[in-house]
């Protein structure tokens, strides 16, 4: 605690991105988009071209909505936020409804897989995803997942900046800490613990051991020092951070909201299976999340 605020040191950084299978794009003769200017409509159009060219064997887009990365981005691009600074649910229901309507449209048009396929993949391990199994061309992922996905895929994958950033009200992209180092106030050895945390964050020998195992190092000096030791895909993930224009990171998840991703997953499934409209899903999600926070 410092001046009544709690701090922790980020181990590493990630940012949300689109990962595209460039081998499949070439196979189906679909052009790689300009990720400096493309839009969500462009993603839908490109995905439709892939789905059509493959005869449905490969879906253009792997649907998302099962973690808080995508709704955070969607809200931020529209000048909104999931939470207010004081920890209340602040996202307008119409913003979330638009998010789920987009996903429903992808599935209905065949740009994304059927709901049953999407949900099965969302509940499976990373190596069973549409990206890893070469069954989807475009998908949302954190940039540091690139190496694992490429290893599973065996094909050429590339990181793209998010659609809609060039026309957004505010940057959707942000740096997400992979995890934090902190020292308990009850530590019997606070000085030694502080030295150890300092070593993990600021010592090049620690960086040489960790590499990108816990995200791309937040310390840019350490990041530069490990550049020559990284695999091609790990280096691509690290370099990608410097190509993205980011806004201020979202508020840390408030007390009581630890189950927010389970809530998001449940509403996404309801929408994809047609059991709930995007509007009703948005209203129910906001109410459920605010109730959890109020009861904390």
Fold and architecture overview:
With 296 residues, this protein is an alpha+beta fold. It has 12 helices and 9 strands. α4 (93-109) crosses α12. The radius of gyration is 20 Å and the shape is globular.
- Mass-distribution shape: globular
CATH architecture annotation of the largest domain: 3-Layer(aba) Sandwich
**Category from helices, strands and their pairing:** alpha+beta
Which range best describes the helical content: under 10%, 10-25%, 25-40%, 40-55%, 55-70% or over 70%? 40-55%
**CATH third-tier fold name of the largest domain:** D-Maltodextrin-Binding Protein, domain 2
Largest sheet: 4 strands, mixed
Whole-number total of structural domains: 2
Strand order of the largest sheet: 4-5-3-6
Which radius of gyration do the C-alpha atoms yield? 20 Å
- Low-pLDDT stretches are none
Portion of residues in beta strands equals 5-15%
Kindly state the number of beta strands: 9
Order of helices and strands: EEEHHEHHHEHEEEHHEHHHH
Average pLDDT score: 95
């Amino acid at each position: 605690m410092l001046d009544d605020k709690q701090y922790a040191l980020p181990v590493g950084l990630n940012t949300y991105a689109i990962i595209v299978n460039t081998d499949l794009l070439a196979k189906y003769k679909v052009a790689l988009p300009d990720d400096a200017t493309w839009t969500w409509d462009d993603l839908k159009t490109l995905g439709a071209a892939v789905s059509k060219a493959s005869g449905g064997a490969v879906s253009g887009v792997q649907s998302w909505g099962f973690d808080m990365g995508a709704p955070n981005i969607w809200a931020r691009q529209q000048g909104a936020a999931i939470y207010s600074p004081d920890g209340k649910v602040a996202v307008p229901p119409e913003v979330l409804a638009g998010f789920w309507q987009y996903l429903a449209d992808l599935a209905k048009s065949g740009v994304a897989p059927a709901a049953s396929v999407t949900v099965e993949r969302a509940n499976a391990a990373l190596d069973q995803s549409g990206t890893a199994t070469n069954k989807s061309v475009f998908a949302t992922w954190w940039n540091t997942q690139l190496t694992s996905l490429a290893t599973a895929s065996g094909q050429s994958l590339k990181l793209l900046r998010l659609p809609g950033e060039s026309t957004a009200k505010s940057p959707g992209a942000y740096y997400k800490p992979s995890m934090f180092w902190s020292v308990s106030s009850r530590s019997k050895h606070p000085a030694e613990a502080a030295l150890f945390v300092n070593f993990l964050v600021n010592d090049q020998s620690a960086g040489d051991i960790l590499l990108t195992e816990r995200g791309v190092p937040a310390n840019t000096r350490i990041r530069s020092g490990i550049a020559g030791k990284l695999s091609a895909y790990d280096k691509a993930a690290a370099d990608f951070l410097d190509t993205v224009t980011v806004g201020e990171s979202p508020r840390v998840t408030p007390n009581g909201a630890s189950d927010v991703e389970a809530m998001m997953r449940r509403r996404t499934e309801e929408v994809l299976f047609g059991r709930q409209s995007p509007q009703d899903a948005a209203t129910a999600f906001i109410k459920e999340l605010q109730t959890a926070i109020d009861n904390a």
